[in-house]
Every structure is written in structure tokens, then in C-alpha cells.
Amino acid sequence: MSNLPKIAWIGLGIMGSPMSENLIKAGYQVTGFTLEQDKLDRLAAAGGTAAPSIAEAVRDADVVITMVPASPQVEAIAYGPDGILENARQGSLLIDMSSITPQTSVDLAKAAKDKGIRVLDAPVSGGEAGAIEAVLSIMIGGEQADFDQAKPIFEALGKTIVLCGPHGSGQTVKAANQLIVAVNIQACAEAVVFLEKSGVDLQAALDVLNGGLAGSTVLTRKKDNFLNRDFKPGFRIDLHHKDMGIVTDAARNVGAALPVGAVVAQLVASLRAQGDGGLDHSALLRAVERLSGAQL
């Protein structure tokens, strides 16, 4: 029998499925729950155990990991008679890897403490590719001792693993990450349209740009999306819209001005309003194309 902690995984979406599978590959016993039967079947095929409910998934777990879209979903799975806090055992560790508001994380940690459950907020960056390759950047908020206990789990999921401060700090850093990513994608999208309208070989231009100061992980990861107009979702516009709301609200609360971020937040919102919310966030290119006269 393995001495590794038993893990319950709640939320098996684009990110959650490959992440849970990487834990199985690392030797962890993973019991999962999600709303989609095909995702449960995928977990079982990878060597995990599908549970019929949150309560069943978390009952015997040493560590509960959640990866759901937003604050309302975290609250829905955490609270109430069928939720994590009522059914996980005392002394267990809850790691929320969703991207939510910092205040939601703070409130969850407080409520969990009253139940004898420890909490880390641990959102990630790297998208679907980073999840599959186990090279995610993981930004964590919570207690040092809990971080130390969870570090081997994080090491099976990512490469850059940093405790950023107390509860909510991981979410604050993730909000800043999403600000940088959105602005970067927008700049890349504008460059692509500019280059194409100028008659430049786009492949050659992006290759040389990515080798200089304009290069970035965003350009590396999204270059083919731009070249091929392939917007299969790795990270949906709908989710980035949610994240831009988080960072603009949080910045307002602390008195930080985000002039460029506010503009990009509106561009993300406009793309969503035009029916592109289910596309990858590299589809910001479509918004620039429309503004530049293209009929899409």
C-alpha cells in the first residue's frame, strides 16, 4: 500500500482532468467527482476512482483538491450539507486550485478552520498545455506548514511553486497574472493584424519577435493559434472575462490604477458579447480584426 496521502479531486474540466491524471502517474490514489460522466469515465480509465458525490469523494481523503471555474462554484461545492466542509474529515487539507476572488479564499479558510480543516489557495498559470505537461506555475496562499506538507503534490503538477503569503495571496497573484496575460495577448493580437496588413510573412515575423525582447511565454504558447486561427479553448474567453473582473475589482479596493488593464477588460467583454466566449483567449485576435474592418 502507498504511504502517499489519499486525494479527492473535485472538478475535472480542461485543467482538472490532466492535473488529476498527473497525480495518478506520480503514484497517488485519486478519487474524483465532477458533473460530467465522460470526465468521470476518463478518470477511471487513467487509474483513478469515480465517486457518485462530493461527500463520497472526500470522506476518506487526506487531501481534497478543487478545480472549478469561479467563486460561486467553489462556494457551492464547499458549503452546505453535501459539501466538502461537512463531509471531509478533521485534519484534512483542502487545496483550492480554482481562480477566484481573494476574499472568497479568505472566507473559505476561516469557515474551514472552524471545522478543523486546513486550507491553501493555490491557483495556477500555464493553461491546458501546462497542465498536461505538469509545468504549471502555482501561486499559493496559506500557512507555511501546510505548504510544506502539500509541496510534493504541487511538484507533481508544476515547476514554479511559490508560497506568496497568507490566505488569499495566491489568488491576488493569480489576478495579477491574468492581467499580464490578457494585456500580452492583446498586444500580440494587435501586432499580428498590423503585420498581416503590412504584407509581412507572419510566421517569420513572429519567430524573430519571439527571439527578442518582445518574446514571451504567451507568444510561444499562442503563436500557432494566431497563425492558424485555431481558437480551440485551452483557456476560454468566458473565464478570462471572469478573471479580469476579479483583478479590476481587487485593484479598485486597494487603490491601484489599471488603465491598460481596464481597456483590455472591456475588449474581452466585447468579444464575449459577440458570441466568442467559448473560444480560447487568443481569440482576442478576432476583436482586433473586427476593429480593423474584417467581416468575421
From TrEMBL:
Biological process, per Gene Ontology: glyoxylate metabolic process
Name of this chain's protein: 2-hydroxy-3-oxopropionate reductase
Pfam families the UniProt entry points to: NAD_binding_11, NAD_binding_2
Active site: K174
Keyword terms of this UniProt record: NAD, Oxidoreductase
Biological classification of the source: Bacteria, Bacillati, Actinomycetota, Actinomycetes, Kitasatosporales
UniProt cross-references to PANTHER family, sorted A to Z: 3-HYDROXYISOBUTYRATE DEHYDROGENASE-LIKE 1, MITOCHONDRIAL-RELATED
InterPro entries listed in its UniProt record: 6-PGluconate_DH-like_C_sf, 6PGD_dom2, 6PGDH_NADP-bd, HIBADH-like_NADP-bd, HIBADH-related, NAD(P)-bd_dom_sf, Tartro_sem_red
Keyword Lipid metabolism attached: no
Domain (3-hydroxyisobutyrate dehydrogenase-like NAD-binding): residue spans on this chain: 168-287
